[in-house]
Amino acid sequence: MRARERPPVETFGAAWDALFDRPIAHRGLWSRDGAPENSLGAFQAACAHDYGIELDVQLTADGDAVVFHDERLERMTGVEGRVRDHTAAELGALALKGTDETIPTLAEALTVIGHRAMVHIELKTPFGEVGPLEKRVSEILIDHNGPTAIIGFNPYSHAWFADHHPQILRGLDSYGWNDEGARHVAPEMRKSMAALEHVEIARPDFLALGLDMLPSPKADVLRAKGMPVIAWTVRTPEQWAAIQAHCDNLIFEGFHA
Question: Which GO terms describe its molecular function (predicted)?
Answer without folding.
Answer: glycerophosphodiester phosphodiesterase activity
